[in-house]
Amino acid sequence: MSTDDAAKSLARTWDIANKVVWCPAALPRGLSDLLQLEGGERPLRILDCACGSGFPGVELRGMGLDVSLCDGSEDMTDMAKAKAVNHLGRDHGMDIRTCTWDQLPEVWGKEVFDVVLWRGNSMPYVCDAWTNPSASVANETREAYSRLVESAKAVYDVLVPGGRLYCDCIGEVSETFVWDGVVHKHGIFEGKKVDIEWTFSMNEAKGTRTWASVSRLGEEPDQEVVASSVTGVLVREQEVRAILTYAGFGFIDKTQCKGESTYQAFVVQKPSVDLGFYCRQNDRLRRVWNSNGRLCWGLFPGQHPVADVLELDCRIGSGALVGPHAALDEFLCSRLPGTAQSVVDVGCGTGRSAINLARRLPHAHIRGCDPSAVNITVAEGMAQAEGVGGRVSFFTGTAQEMLGTDCHGMMFDAAWSEAALCHAPPADRRAALAAIFSQLKPGGVLILHDAVQGPSPISPTAQLHVYERLQLSGLWTAPQYMETLTSLGFSVQEYINLTSHQAASYSALSITARAVSHDCEADEESQQAFQQMAHDYKISGMMAAKHQLGWGLFIATKSDIGAAATA
User: At a CB cut-off of 8 Å and minimum separation 6, what does 530 contact?
Assistant: First the structure.
């Protein structure tokens, strides 16, 4: 079967399912009641971004609602357009477009819709499964999770502040769906008897699930057989919660929708005020880390850090990492030249490291930069409050922007970067290191500790709960970091693999976040956020222990030879 024929068969399979498996009458009314789509002060703009063959978008339009439709498959949108004409007439007034989810802001614009529907268990098919059902998604599971987070961010972007998203996934086993096995359904389609056989095959190891459908319409010898098969990634409740959280959505309401007996429904709201990736969870992070938001890593004294963490009293909140973090702080600062008069802190966040450096180097001026204006505002206030405002200053922007303009011509004795460059794309990361090198004095020291990619292959679980959560973009391995530093002219004096300490730190933070969640029982939104945080930290610790994520300390100097080459 050609790709075009397979796509058409899949579209017809979906159309049959809409009329036989689901309830065309009850679901649109259920969605309207659940989301309060009718009777408001003004008409709501609604987008069904996985419209398939037009259900339930056309029905919602028939109820007088302002509904637009889109789907990644042209075969699907063609069927939706035909359905709109057949049910509503040629003047149906619906805007129906073909686009993928990551294209939503480009196609529709930003902050356009009050409500987005992302239903029908469509998330698993984020790759080209709809338009190319024969594609091997099994080998692209990591990419699929990455694209799902990007798609969720695109959905976030087309929603107005305060807008709502309705989405779903397969829930508990039902008579309609099973995770692994065969389901039979019977009904009437286009006036003909139809027998449907669905076979589901789950591959937990690869993180995929295949849906094979055979629909037999009518009787022999004129029977029509519609067969299709599509493979998608596993998207269960835990993946849905992670994907939406990493995209920026707030409280995720697990709910029920009248007429929806097949899928588990969720309603989530876009915050009215978006503080951005760097600041979205700062207040909550401080409750798990500490009040100034810095105590998140520790250096454990024993030879087996993951075991050492179990000896700590992790029930006292951020106290679990007080001792280990103090040890790490002392260790890092011992690598700085005590005579340093000027230090640049790249990726300073809320300024905690810069303020700490100012205390340890009483004669030095510290210059910090961060892309987040909110972080810089907090940092400036903290520096003043702690009495070092005269020796600590901050810049909103990247290292390249600060060193190329605001600090152009200035030379620094030392540079510091803590868990920051991992968030930059590789080209920007290299550019930041090059900018640091260009404005270090000969003999100047770079103290860099950051996330690195581990030597083990990255699993789909690590991709979603670690790399997507932290927005780690093209992470380097430790050897790649050292090769880059050397190629820029640095002399790498020391590299220390701190991955086991990273695993222990995440384990301690997971326990702490879980304890904090128990204190939030009266605040369901906060409790959910801390439970998600505890889950993510636990997985991050496991992935570090499995060497799918790493943490490295690099100490490098700018030699006189390197300085001459730069000049």
Answer: 284, 287, 288, 513, 514, 516, 517, 520
pLDDT tens for 455-510 read 998 888 899 999 998 888 789 999 999 999 999 999 999 999 999 889 988 988 88
CB 409 within 8 A of CB 376: no
Has residue 80 been placed in a domain?
yes
What is the rounded CA–CA span in Å between residue 128 and residue 147? 11
Instruction: Give me 349's structure tokens.
Output: 């966040």
> What pLDDT is attached to residue 350?
85
C-alpha–C-alpha distance, residues 418 and 431, integer Å? 17
> Distance between CA 140 and CA 60 in Å, rounded?
35
* Of the candidates 381, 320, 315, the residue with the CA atom closest to the CA atom of residue 354: 381
Contact 44, 55 (CB under 8 A): no
The larger pLDDT score, comparing residue 311 to residue 455, is at 455
Helices and strands in the chain: count of H runs, count of E runs: 19, 18
Q: How far is CA 248 from the centre of its chain?
A: 8
User: Are 477 and 552 in the same domain?
Assistant: yes
- Provide the edge-to-edge strand list for the sheet that holds 440-452: 392-396, 365-370, 342-346, 412-418, 440-452, 550-558, 490-497
- As to burial, measured by CB atoms within 10 angstroms (0-12 exposed, 13-18 middle, 19+ buried), residue 552 is buried
Q: CB 463: neighbour CB atoms within 10 A?
A: 22
Query: Structurally, how many domains does the chain consist of?
Result: 2
Q: What is the pLDDT of residues 59-96, one digit of tens each?
A: 999 999 999 999 998 989 999 999 999 999 988 889 99
DSSP per-residue letters across 415-426? EEEES-GGGS-H
Instruction: Indicate the helix (H) or strand (E) that contains 451.
Output: strand 440-452
User: What pLDDT sits at residue 134?
Assistant: 47
* Domain-located, residue 511: yes
Domain with 99, as residue range(s), is 3-170+236-269
